[in-house]
Structure formats: structure tokens, C-alpha cells
Design goal:
The protein has about 350 residues and is mainly alpha-helical. Helix content is about 70%, strand content about 0%. The protein has 13 helices and 2 strands. A two-stranded antiparallel sheet has the order 1-2. Helix 2 crosses helix 5, helix 8 packs antiparallel against helix 9 and helix 9 packs across helix 12.
């Protein structure tokens, strides 16, 4: 029976099994070997410790649900969400324009062709600053508050009910965290969509933000909050609830040997594949609201009724969906890849260690 204190971050980060311990030791050895002057070999961590080494006490892990643990989750969320979303800015740019002007941007290939012809290669990263800032803020709240709410709901339910209804607790925790995360994201998303879908409106965040406020007022930054919740809450719930199940099924039905007997490369591939498939589900359940977000943030004074009338019910579910599946699948797969998750969670301590050495 799983302890209620275990994080939903994939089990290889907190499991006390021999295979998980071996993975932890291997990662510590790799990181320690990069510093020949390291005074001592890495120490195995107990099952109650999160797999992040303290910068001043290399053998001691960060305690679960301590302030340092929440800080590490928050920082990992900033990097994993902010950097991955910024990387796929070209896909997001074409997707938004396909949603707003399907007559001009008829397909993925023609959409890239139109943008290349009209704006050049540099145009593919228009809006990258609000994307980076917005999804960094969202990731910080999503991962940090998810762990907080998961523990809070687990404590309310008690150990027995937590073990029995852990999936419901995970869903409640992820939904609660996403409500806060989207409040942080919404202003940046509004400016991003306007910059990406209205050429000439602004170059980016620095001039786009004041122009948006002048045009729509401060309240306009949050006119898309309802659809944004409608997009992100189902997305996040599906993301956290489906990944572990998908990975478990891959190991059970597609790979003829146990996980601990698989190579690191194969485990990485399974994690990416599981994340990608989870991302496909995320994209499908959240796509109608994504169309609403793009429409509302592009048109001044637009309402949800205007969007439904203009796009149509079928269009809400289908317009721009293939490209969004590619984009969200790639994002989710990258965020759940084992080495990336471990590294991002350890990075705050590693950076501080490096600074202390200097």
C-alpha cells in the first residue's frame, strides 16, 4: 500500500525499491564524478527523503513537504514549464493563427509557409517572452501548490482513505493548484495571443503589455480566465492522472522484461512515450477551451457567445487540434522524461553547490 506521503512525481523519484535506489546512486555518481575534488562518495537516501542533495550536507536529502521541498518543486516547475513552452513557440504560433484565421492558415505546412513568407524565420518566435514568463509563473504555482494541496487533502482524508482514493486526491490537488496557476498565467497568455495573431500590434511583452492595457483595460487581461480554467484544469488533471497508468501499461504489455532490467535509454523512451500519449489525451479534452482562449484574447470586446457563434461547436473541438496534439504531446513527453525531471528537481541544490565552491 502506497504511503500518502509519496509524491505524484513519478515513482522513480521517491521509491525505496532497489531499482529506484540504484537509479538514485547512479545519478549521484554521475554528478559527483563531474567534480573530481568531491570529498566523499554519494550516500544512499532513505525512503522518507526526497532525492535532492543539500548543498551543505551532500549526504542528506531534502525532507518531504519541508519548505526546501516546496521550493525545489516550485523551481523545477518554473524550468520544466517555462522552457518547454518557450521551445515550442513556433508550433504555438501557427496553432493560434490556424484557430483565428483558418482561411489563411489552412494546414500545418501552409501555416508555416505563410509565416515564413510574411515574417521571416525570426517571426516563428514572436511572443516567446510572454510565453516564457507566463508558463514559468504557471509552472511554479502548478508544481508547488500541487504538492501542497495533495498533502493537505491526504491529511484531511487520513491514511486509509488516502490509499484507497489516491487518484481522486491527485485529481483534487492538481485542479486546486491549476486554479491558482492560471491566475498567474492569464495576463501573459492574453498578451501572447494578441502579439502572435495580430502582426503589427506589438513586438513582444515590453510594448505589448501596455498596449493591451490601453486597449482593453486591466480587466481585459483576465477576460479569458474562465476559458483558461476550462482548458488548463482538465488538461492538468488528465496529465497527472494518466501518466503513471500509461507507463505501467507500456511496461506490462509492450516490453517483455521488468522495468529494473531495462536500459536507461529504454526507460527514458518509455517515460517520453507515456508523457506523449498523456499529452494527446490532455490536448483532446482541453481543446475547445483553447479555441475560446485564442478567440477572446484576439478580438476586442469578444464574448464566449461570439466565439461559439463564429467558430461553431464542431470547430471548437477540431480547429487546430492536430497541431495542438503534436505540441502538447511533445511538451508533456519532455516534462515527464526521467532525467529531465530528476535534473530539474536537483538543479537548485546543484547551482547553490557551485556557487559555494566559487
Amino acid at each position: 500500500m502506497e504511503s500518502p506521503k509519496h509524491s505524484l512525481i513519478p515513482s522513480f523519484l521517491y521509491s525505496s525499491s532497489s531499482s529506484s535506489s540504484a537509479r538514485s546512486l547512479l545519478l549521484d555518481q554521475m554528478l559527483t564524478n563531474s567534480n573530481p575534488k568531491s570529498p566523499s562518495p554519494p550516500t544512499m537516501l532513505s525512503q522518507k527523503n526526497f532525492l535532492i542533495a543539500s548543498p551543505t550536507e551532500p549526504g542528506k536529502g531534502i525532507e518531504m513537504y519541508s519548505p526546501a521541498f516546496y521550493a525545489a518543486c516550485t523551481f523545477g516547475g518554473i524550468l520544466s514549464c517555462g522552457l518547454t513552452h518557450m521551445t515550442v513557440t513556433p508550433l504555438d504560433l501557427v496553432k493560434c493563427n490556424m484557430q483565428i484565421d483558418p482561411a489563411k492558415y489552412k494546414s500545418i505546412s501552409s501555416g508555416f509557409g505563410v509565416l515564413l513568407k510574411e515574417q521571416g524565420a525570426r517571426g516563428f518566435f514572436r511572443g516567446w517572452v510572454p510565453t516564457l514568463l507566463g508558463y514559468s509563473a504557471q509552472g511554479a504555482c502548478k508544481f508547488g501548490f500541487y504538492e501542497f494541496f495533495k498533502k493537505y487533502y491526504s491529511d484531511l482524508a487520513g491514511p486509509d482513505y488516502t490509499a484507497k482514493y489516491k487518484t481522486l486526491i491527485y485529481l483534487a490537488g492538481s485542479a486546486s493548484a491549476e486554479i491558482i496557476a492560471d491566475v498567474a498565467l492569464c495576463p501573459f497568455e492574453a498578451v501572447k495571443v494578441r502579439v502572435q495573431t495580430q502582426p503589427g500590434f506589438a513586438r513582444g511583452m515590453s510594448d505589448g503589455f501596455p498596449k493591451f492595457i490601453k486597449s482593453e483595460g486591466l480587466g481585459g487581461l483576465y477576460k479569458g480566465i474562465g476559458p483558461l480554467w476550462g482548458r488548463q484544469i482538465p488538461y492538468t488533471m488528465m496529465k497527472f492522472a494518466s501518466f503513471e497508468t500509461i507507463v505501467e501499461m507500456i511496461y506490462k504489455y509492450a516490453i517483455p522484461r521488468p522495468k529494473d532490467q531495462c536500459s536507461k535509454g529504454l526507460q527514458l523512451g518509455v517515460s517520453f512515450a507515456g508523457g506523449y500519449v498523456a499529452g494527446v489525451f490532455c490536448a483532446i479534452v482541453s481543446h475547445p477551451a483553447d479555441n475560446l482562449v485564442s478567440f477572446l484574447n484576439n478580438a476586442r470586446g469578444a464574448t464566449v457567445g461570439d466565439a461559439v457563434k463564429k467558430i461553431g461547436l464542431l470547430g471548437l473541438f477540431t480547429r487546430g487540434l492536430p497541431l495542438r496534439i503534436v505540441m502538447i504531446g511533445t511538451l508533456t513527453g519532455a516534462q515527464w522524461a526521467q532525467p529531465l525531471v530528476v535534473l530539474l528537481q536537483r538543479l537548485p541544490s546543484l547551482l547553490l553547490k557551485q556557487r559555494l565552491k566559487q
